[in-house]
Fold each of these.
Amino acid sequence: MNHWMILPLVVPPVVAAIIMLAARHLLSLARILSVGTVVLMVALSAGLFWFAADGTVSVYRMSNWPVPFGIVLVLDRLSALMLLLTMILSLAIVLYAIGSDWDAKGKHFHALLMFQIMGIAGAFLTGDIFNLFVFFEVLLIASYGMMVHGGGERRLRAGVQYVTYNLLGSTLFLFALGTIYAVTGTLNMADLAQKVALMAPEDSALIRVAAVLLLLVFAVKASIVPLHFWLPATYAEAPAPVAALFAIMTKVGAYAILRVYVFIFGPDVAVMGGIVGQWLLPAALITLAIGMVGVLGARSLGHLAAYAAIGSMGTLLIAVALFTPAGTAAALYYMVHSTLAGAVLFLVADMIRQGRAGEDRLIPGPALAQNGLIATLFLVAAIGMAGLPPLSGFLGKLLVLDAARTVDGAAWVWGAVLVGSLVAVVGFARGGSVLFWNTTDAPSQGEPVSSLALTATFGLVGLLVMLTVFAGPATAFLDATAAQLFDRAGMVAATLPPEAILEAAP
Amino acid sequence: MEALYSSAIGILTAAGIYLVLRRRTFPVILGLTFLTYAVNLFLFASGRLVRNMPPLLDETTTPTDPLPQALVLTAIVISFGMTAVIVMLALGSWLSGKDDRIDQPADDGQPREGGQS
């Protein structure tokens, strides 16, 4: 067994406990521990990524219980990619939080961040669907704490809504899991995949109910219309580094949809009859439209960034809903891009707020102290989120359009993506011109942004540039990732011992 | 027993959904609690209802499925913790906002004066 893959679930909670006990009143020590752990996690996940890149599927059996009875962690190309993305994003965010002093505005920021990292890493690594629920709860409970970090009436109100919405989602998740267990008698993903694939079409009623309930849960996480109502208030009110970290949380929903609805309830599975794609594609199109219209209509910077995040989830889920290897590869490329670009947008929004003494509205105000620099960053973030050349958002949308070329309803997909991009360009241009050009002569009240915060943000921008420059190798890797995800028999054979594999009925 | 059990789950779920749709935080939290009771019972039943049997394998008995019991235990712990969190958040929101409505105030969507700290 490859013991390295358990470390992302062991090291952060231990460090969190140390931070809570030993560094509660020593912010500088908490910062050192936190940055050190995240750097270690980046190195570790890079190692795991390198290990999984050749297509090896590693299985970690907790307490060495035999599969499928014990809990397993499964590391394949997709998990390794998501793990690496999470850790890199966390590094930029922890540096930004330190540089902008966000972590000093409330208690336990770094401890909560450690638990958040553990929850996200666990959700990506687990090979057991009940454990997916447990890690969802771990990342959610940490995110509840981080969401209300710093306090304030509006933030607490948005926090109550966010928690209520997600508790309802958790309840649905448990109902779905109970139904799945009652029908199939297993919760291991690989075992579930082989059993669901062998079910007769006339036994489809209960398993379909469970699958659609589960889709609703992931739709809440991924903020698909009509379950997106929690997102704008939450993202607009959350502290900026937390909102930027939440850029990966919606992607956890997208990852879960990919994992469950390609691997377990795939489009070729007889009992499902392609029902997921039929519903997901229209919902994703409407999500994209609502996000982009929201960008155009937003009256504050926070809402502008939040609706841009919804729109990018729409584009991503359009590619997911095609349920083809090409569509999935395009979705993964756009997922990496939109996580980084969305995080940059939230961080830039915070810099602008800081330079305008907390003013969040899109109204004329005094020029920022570093107007040119921050305007450039905003331009980069806007280009990334709207999907214009030369950044990777353009390549991502191109891949999505190309993957959708041959499916039914291609005209709808092309229309929504292209018109949506145009609307987003207008929305960002409106926001940017008010913020940076329509300035008054009054002296600036805000503070300049610290160099550490700028470095963290430019680091993310650098990754976007790298994703664009090395798009060729990246897409080759993502094609292999999608192929591995669609190879159900191969994944089942790699996860389960030979005696647990069921033969297909002749 | 099946009829009693399933109707109990149904009534708890119905009461929970009704309360969750209320406008103030206290009934909403009560509703969430009812829903978690319902889902705990539901999970328990997913291993089939068997009476007076131990969750142990031996030759003479048809055992109870032990896995749902472990699942329910996890679910109870998590929902207990989550309920505590939302009670604290709702309390904080009530104390700082002077009302306990779950929706955003009437001026939501209106851009803020000042901004966030």
Amino acid sequence: MLEGSPATITPAPASRQRALAPVPAPRAKPAAGRGQLWLAAHFTRLPLDALLPGTGQARAAVVTALDDPRRAVVACNERATRQGITPGMSLNAALALVPGLRAEEQRHAAEAALLDRLGRWALQFTPVVSLEPPAAVLAEVRGSLDLFGGAMTLVRRALADLSASGLSASLALAPTARGALWLARADLAMTVTRIDAMPGIAARLPLACLQWPADTVATLAGLGIASVADLLRLPRAGFAARFGPQLLDELDEGLGRRPGPRRRHVVPERFDERLDLEDAAETTGGLQPPLERGLARLENFLRARASGISVLRVDLLHRGGAPTRLRVALARTACDAAHLRELLRERLGRCRLALPVVALRLRSGVLLPLRLRDAGLFERGRSANPEATARLLDLLRARLGHEAVFCVLQVAEHRPERAWRIAEPGGTTSLPVPWHAARPARPLWVLAEPQPLENWEGALVTGPERIETGWWDGHDVRRDYYVAISRAGVRLWIFRERPPGQRWFLHGVFG
Amino acid sequence: MSDTLAELLRHPALWRGGSASAPETVPTGFRALDARLPGGGWPLSTLIELLVPTAGVGEIRLLLPALRTLATAEGGKPRWIVWLAPPHLPYAPALADAGLDPAHMLVIRPRAGLDRLWAMEQALRSGACAAVLGWTGTAGDQALRRLKLAAEEGRTPGFLLRPSAHRADCSPAALRLALAARDCGLDIEILKSQGGGPARIERLPIH
């Protein structure tokens, strides 16, 4: 039986119990530590708060589901609720109720970002915080109760914080994480402190607060199961066989019959340090010594965490002026100060100081795991070394600018000027274009724009190759291409426009 | 040869051009040219200068077979070939036709002339590239010497493409060729060749 009370375990005859419960019922003793107390915050209007923050009191607004032909309402603000809109309603129905309704499409990325921020907010109460996407945050607060003056004060304080930032949440406290989550979803502002009270309280909850898959809920409804109390009366074995062991485990976790380990929400570390200069630097040369110190600290910081960075921001702070911001992007995750110093030297060489610099600020981007590479014993320097290539790329870009270094890839297109594009070096290898084998040779150099040829003298060698295509996008070409040799002996790729144009153009050089 | 002369020749301080140990090379892909070059191909890890009357006489077609070999030299992993300040943009479909992966052709277009020399030196020194093709324009003897040292340090062949006007200039390049187009072929004059001697090849057929 799902209900783990002693009454249902002990009196049942042994044979009957085996038939009903081949999966042994977990120990009645709570596996989840008796000491835990979880605060669950369920954000009822998270999709709305993520997109339209602080619109609780404004005009009626809803957020609709993504990729849904009905555009069902996912969340609505208070005014919309007062005017009769409920989640699950189609947008058309909602618009019929409130003609001037503001409707936005759900954005999962914004929701995830907001939940991440809420996770950081919850870290003020306890270091043990866990996110429950899409819309809940869990925090283990037993150890913090004394500090915050008891459970009630803590909840009041959290609620005040949330409503001050215009978020609507329902909070609940329970000895298990999942149990607290159920209570919060059911919008029961309850505090359950004793684990043995959980089964009794859970039985009073509606089935919806479990947030199980819709088809499972439908099947259960077909069986006449409408509440958690009904659910707890089902035999364990049959339930596990029919719906899988995960849902049974979820129930056991909620009731404290098995531990429910949770992933901790950890705020990613970053390096952010300010270095004050003893004397204001007038030239970029004066920045080198403090920069060197800062970079050495950054390297230590990164090495201690076996991490690297792909972006470094350096702000040059001036007295009474906006800071000069520099950004160094690396082609490959790196951590060593010497490489960064070299890049910054080139980068600083390009920038002109309008005001003297009084301080520097170094900020890393997100820390990335560093893939360390052994130095080869028989390294001959001729094999492809991805680190060396990335370093070269960084260095060239730091001095010449990002756009000065690129590679060209081919594009499956018959129009010669569109058969290539500029791309990031070292990326994907370009795919072979199917008709290559069949077509005449192409020149190794191409002119950015075909150049008109006036009074040209030379000999045509091969041709014509007729290229007549592209009428569908307004950039159609109608050309006859020839290979020609100029008087200087250079092989050229030239074309003549088809009538009525008839002019000659130079398009490429065979090199 | 008299005994005195033989004795003199054994002197350790005496260096003879012909006896220099053959440099590491990559075949040019043209038998007539290979036969005239010491080591039978383009020397690796040094500076090679190609003088052309005008861009496009066939200098790239001359280099293509070697570039193909260099790009996939070891372990089958493609390596970068740097095109530094080329007179026009390399055309990706033609590169692919020639058997070079366009994704590994690094085009660098610096604005200032000095940046070209700097970028070429960095590319050569890094050892990250299979070959560096540079159109550096005017460059003094000292700048070229730096490039040669960088090529030796990075063990990367550097092909310097310059106008024929620089023919009479003094240059530290290990190999200097003057090219001229003639009848769908290429006249090649070897002006300087470390470990070899001057030579002329007429109408080398390049495709």
Amino acid sequence: MSGMNYSASADDALVKAARQGELAAFEELVFRHRDQIYARAFSMTRHEEDAVDLSQEAWIKGWQRLGQFQGDSSFTTWMTRIVINLCLDHLRKQRRHRTDSIEELDEDSGGVERQMPVVTVNPTAGLERAELRKKIDGALGQLTAEHHTVLVLHEFEDMDYKTIAKTVGCSMGTVMSRLFYARRKMAALLADVRKES
Amino acid sequence: MKLQAFLDGELPAREAREILTWTQRDREASSLLAELRNTRQALAKSEPHLSLPESREFFWSKIEREIQRLEPHPVAAPPPSGFAALRRWFFPAAAVSALVIAGMIAYFQAPTAAVQTVADADAPTVETTLANSDATTYRDASEGTTLVLFSYAVDNSPVKNKKPTAIN
């Protein structure tokens, strides 16, 4: 146990201490970034309990793999990649246990997104930030796992098509198709929300 | 989907110029591009802020318990320096060798050393002078005293008594 002031230390210093086996330093990292990691897990799974479990698992894996953290990216980026991979594994397992939804069949048969009417008015214009977030969250919840996953990776994680394809384990064409569908569906859902309100 | 790739900056420059020209000519393409752009912009600044629905202590206690269950954790140690390697392997090996040598010396010299030690210390010794005679000698050099104990049967009794005889 060092005389380190954990709460006043930068992430890099905490990572270094944690690599030496200081659990208290790692606890501070968990405390700082637990919401962010949980939020990513939730955005991927859309399920609160699963997101809690997966974010917890991500932290444990993070501790075990600290020796592999090279510092090429920030610690939070590194942790986010861990939780994303765990979520993708989780979603793959879930997919094996469920029948395909109509939306997926539509996507596979090709072109339902092309038949949607174009939303000509910006459905989110003039909305307060908090209200917009709430509506986006609601709309994301109505997409299938495959669609909101691609959307989250592209829009929130700033991944390009190639990186998403590699991360998810599909072709770039599939990524583009899913992203296109997800965006068009989001536009339609947000337009509906605006009409209702 | 080419429109989307254009929006996301995933097209090579030449193709991007072609798409731009197309959207300037085609109203439907222009509308679709506007819709995709609006959705992207809405998402870009609106990731929902979520908080973990568990207290810090409770969440950490679960992680800590699991980490301790999985110990020892495989955190990478820095590669050992030359001196550290020497300290890690050479010193223990030297210590073991020294112990083995000391043990061998002690083993081969033990009888002599024991006698010498006893004699030097002037300490009392007890020895059985004649193995089958039931006589035992107690010698105390510091006191200048030697006791010899004889055991023999008295009056055909099966009990053996010992009578000390002082020799000065």
